[in-house]
Amino acid sequence: MIRLAIAFVLTFPLLPAQAQLNPSTTQIRPTEIRNGIYIFMGAGGNIGVSVGDDGALIVDDQFAEMTAKVDAALAELTDKPTRYVLNTHWHWDHTGGNENYGKAGKTIIAHDNTYARMSEDQFVAAFNHSEPASPEVALPVITFNDEATLRFNDLTIHMVYAANAHTDSDAFVHFVEANVIHSGDVYTTGSYPFIDSSTGGTLAGEIAAVEKLVNMIDYDTVIIPGHGPLSDKVGALKTLSMLKGTRDVTAKAVADGMSLEAFLDSNPSAPFDDDFAIRADAGRVFATRVYLDMTGG
């Protein structure tokens, strides 16, 4: 039990390397996609950006220490103000700048559960991390249940809820005419996904959410993942195949009465580690999480 507890504490590094960078020393790296849409990579979750005649809009805002750097990068693209901040979910590496933007009068939009999670103290067992409730100024001022639509910079921006996937607060942000979508942490590139069971994430919901993502897009769609480099439908399908394959092999092990230790010793993640393991024990940690999800452990 002690060894497994240590493994859980170490799951945060399963996120891509950019999530581990020091916000005080990391710079924003903008990359243009199309139709005035950019990805800003820095010290937290990837930021999606829309700039145009209406101003600027950002999807997620990393950590509070990154706000000035995000704003400086935006100023290189437009002299118009940032009007909206959209949150893909509640986690602090995606909403840490909310307080700064709220104080600056920006309109923050997110799912109802993002508001609920940020309004109260949270504890994420996988990281042994306690996150205090956010101040009121950091909370979304517009929230939605299933979906919402914003029309901005000649784009239809469609926010779609993905229930109980990475968390219980996830939303895709689809820039429809540009054929670009921000997946939040439901989909990341180059690593096994993190399913935050402490705040409503489930394997079944994660699979359903990635299926929803795949069905929303085509092979020309550019995906801004929650972490990692830009991706596409091929990458999302690969993740979906991995999730279903891991689910199936785990379900068989559970049905056969295999213990967790025996299951891990069978190296169930081997077919997927080349694509998703960013360190030696990543597959083992992910397999542990899936087993415990299926057994209620």
Explain what this protein looks like in three dimensions.
With 297 residues, the chain is α/β, with parallel strands linked by helices. It has one domain (2-232): Ribonuclease Z/Hydroxyacylglutathione hydrolase-like (Metallo-beta-lactamase, Chain A, 4-Layer Sandwich), CATH 3.60.15. 32% of the residues lie in helices and 24% in strands. The chain has helices at residues 2-9, 67-75, 92-95, 98-103, 112-119, 203-216, 233-255, 260-265, 273-276, 282-295; strands at 29-34, 37-41, 47-52, 55-59, 82-86, 107-111, 122-124, 129-131, 142-144, 147-152, 155-162, 170-175, 180-184, 222-225. A 7-stranded mixed β-sheet has the order 1-2-3-4-5-6-9. Strand 4 (55-59), helix 2 (67-75) and strand 5 form a beta-alpha-beta unit. The chain is globular.
Topology:
Elements: H1 2-9, E1 29-34, E2 37-41, E3 47-52, E4 55-59, H2 67-75, E5 82-86, H3 92-95, H4 98-103, E6 107-111, H5 112-119, E7 122-124, E8 129-131, E9 142-144, E10 147-152, E11 155-162, E12 170-175, E13 180-184, H6 203-216, E14 222-225, H7 233-255, H8 260-265, H9 273-276, H10 282-295
Parallel strand pairs: 4-5, 5-6, 6-9, 13-14
Antiparallel strand pairs: 1-2, 2-3, 3-4, 7-8, 10-11, 11-12, 12-13
Helix pairs in contact: 6-7, 7-10
List key phrases describing it:
single chain; 10 helices; globular; 5-stranded mixed beta sheet; alpha/beta; 297 residues; 14 strands; disordered N terminus; 7-stranded mixed beta sheet; Metallo-beta-lactamase, Chain A
